[in-house]
Amino acid sequence: MCEACSSKALLLLKQLFMTLNSMTESFDLATARTGRRRDCVRVMALSLVVTGSFLLQGCLAGAWVAMVAVDSMRSSNVTFEPFEQSWVAQQDQSNDAAHNLKVTSVAILPVEGDPEMGALLATMLQQETTLRVESPSTVAAGISATDPRSAEADDADRSAMAKEVTRDLDVDTVLVSRVAGSPSHPSDWGWKAESSRRLYLYLVDHDGHLLWKDELPFTLVKGSKPPLEASVQIDLSHHVMQHVKELHLDELGYLPKKIS
Fold this sequence. Notes:
single chain, 260 residues, alpha+beta, Rossmann fold, elongated
C-alpha cells in the first residue's frame, strides 16, 4: 500500500517537472519577461517539491499509524472496577490500648488463581505504606498452594493460619487473597480473549481477628503480548490507595500511608 502511494507521488513529480521544463523553454522566447517568469517557475518548482515531500511523509505516517494500531490490538490489558462488599473492623473505643495497636508489618500470602497478583500487592504496600512487607515468595516457604487453610477456607481456618504465619515471620498481620473468575471468551473484535475476574482480600491480625475484607472486580483482556507490568502496577496502586482513603484504613492504622 505504501509502495504504491510512493510510486504515484514520484510519477506525479516527474510529470510536473517535465511540464515545467517545457514552460521554461517557451518563456525563454519572450526575452522581456524572462526574468520574472523564471522566478515564477522556481517558486512553482519549490512548491511542488514541498507538496511531494508531504505526500511521501503522509504515506509513511499512515504506515506508522497502522503498525501502532496492530500492536495495540495484540497487547493485553487489565481494567479495575470499583470495590464491592467492603467491610472494616472498627477499633475498640475502650481505653485498653492493647486492642488498638497500630499495624507495622504484613505478610502477603501467595494469591491463589493469579501468582503475579501477589507480587503486585507486595510492591504496592511497599511503595505506598509504611508497613514492613514480607513478600509471597518468603511466605510460600511455609505454606503449600494446596493447603486446606487457604484463601478459600472459612474464617476459622484463616484465623488459625494467621496466628501461625505472624508468629513464624514476626509480623502483625497477614493478607490472604485469591482470584476467581469466569472462563475467557472472545472480545468484541475477536482478536483477544476477555474474562471477568474478582480479587478477594482478607487482612487478619496476629490474634486471628479479621480487620478488613474486600472484593475487587477486574477485567482481563489477553492478547499475544502481555500487559505492561508498570502500567498495571500504577493502576492497581492508585485504585487500592484511593479505596484505603475512602474506608479510612490509613486512619485506623491498618494500612498506614506514607507521608508524601
